[in-house]
Amino acid sequence: QKEVEQNSGPLSVPEGAIASLNCTYSDRGSQSFFWYRQYSGKSPELIMFIYSNGDKEDGRFTAQLNKASQYVSLLIRDSQPSDSATYLCAVIGGNNRLAFGKGNQVVVIP
Amino acid sequence: EPEVTQTPSHQVTQMGQEVILRCVPISNHLYFYWYRQILGQKVEFLVSFYNNEISEKSEIFDDQFSVERPDGSNFTLKIRSTKLEDSAMYFCASARTVGNYEQYFGPGTRLTVT
To answer: Is pLDDT of B100 > 60?
Structure first.
């Protein structure tokens, strides 16, 4: 069973719209959840982290966590062309290693 | 803003050769990591390092791999005898403490084994 799953294919959104990304994880003991942004050929850049159930907002980004459903999501409001990237969901369970999903590519269309 | 740095940005080596990838973690961080990403695949954990010893390693991190913190600033990953399948981006990351899990990544070293 995969640890972290991001199943959606590439997401195309018009500029100014909301992009919604989803992620599920298998380890019910997971405590820490992260969203990284990765531009092509670059390293992962931490954009959000969330540790408690509910919503966490930071600028145009909102992370949502539901531990009962083992589900974490990321909303990007007022999407900009510079948001075009791959978004990686990552989870830390009982150890200190990040387990990454395969990522979701977001394309913002001007 | 402090950041993780890595050198070299690109390393080309022949199969069977040894390579050393270098990282300078963020200065007040205590936890250090190596991850790799094969082209088109997900980021994979290799090893974590704390208090001058390995705290955890993955199945990928076999006897061909080693890590070292030779001084107060550098953190290195050595691959003793490179294989074609070691070709990947190697990322170093650091975190402030174990209670603060946010890991910040360096720009990566692209390793090409020919």
So the answer is: no
